[in-house]
Design brief:
This is N-acetyltransferase domain-containing protein. With 172 residues, this protein is an alpha+beta fold. The protein has 5 helices and 9 strands, in the order E-H-H-E-H-E-E-E-H-E-H-E-E-E. The protein has one domain: Gcn5-related N-acetyltransferase (GNAT) (Aminopeptidase, 3-Layer(aba) Sandwich). Helix 1 packs across helix 3. 32% of the residues are buried.
């Protein structure tokens, strides 16, 4: 597959919101292995929330585009001091398993290095062992730290108590 990278602008908010929600929630998400539809009801993000993320200084929503500039995936990268926070990796459900996620993770780590970050950090829902294993294969390690799952219904309504596990990777 031929991919190219670009950075989202506010004009991308509608299609980004649709991509993220299709990757995480609802029937479309069940076509891929990254679905959270069995864990949470509701949307993953709304367009206003996406616009807020796009407006964060120094942060970027990295886009993986395929042929004809088709949006294949996205990943949020936010440098903060020496740490790069990565979040909301989304790959179109029908295009998973084709290297889009790895392409975006490498791009986000490069973005962190360009911004002086020495560590990459992300959180993953604790009941997602297959996702944790995916990140571990890419060099991320569980730190032992946890974070509370957001309670704002704009990000979904948990069907069970959820905890976020913190994973980190040195950016050498």
């Amino acid at each position: 597959m031929n991919f190219h990278l670009t950075t989202a602008t506010p004009a991308d908010a509608p299609r980004l919101t649709a991509l993220v929600n299709s990757a995480y929630r609802g029937d479309a998400s069940r076509q891929g292995w990254t679905t959270e539809a069995h864990l949470l009801d509701g949307q993953r993000i709304d367009e206003a929330g996406m616009r807020e993320m796009l407006a964060v200084p120094a942060a970027a929503m990295l886009l993986c585009l395929g042929e004809n500039d088709e949006l294949r995936g996205s990943f949020y990268a936010h440098p903060n001091g020496n740490k790069m926070y990565l979040g909301m990796l989304a790959v179109a459900p029908t295009g998973q398993g084709q290297g889009v996620g790895k392409f975006l993770i490498r791009a986000a780590e490069d973005y962190g290095r360009q911004h002086g970050c020495t560590t990459s950090k992300m959180t993953v829902i604790s009941v997602r062992p297959e996702l944790i294993a995916f990140y571990e294969r890419l060099g991320y390690r569980l730190t032992g730290a946890t974070e509370s799952f957001p309670t704002d219904p704009r990000y979904g309504i948990p069907r069970q108590p959820l905890t976020l596990l913190v994973l980190e990777k040195p950016l050498d």
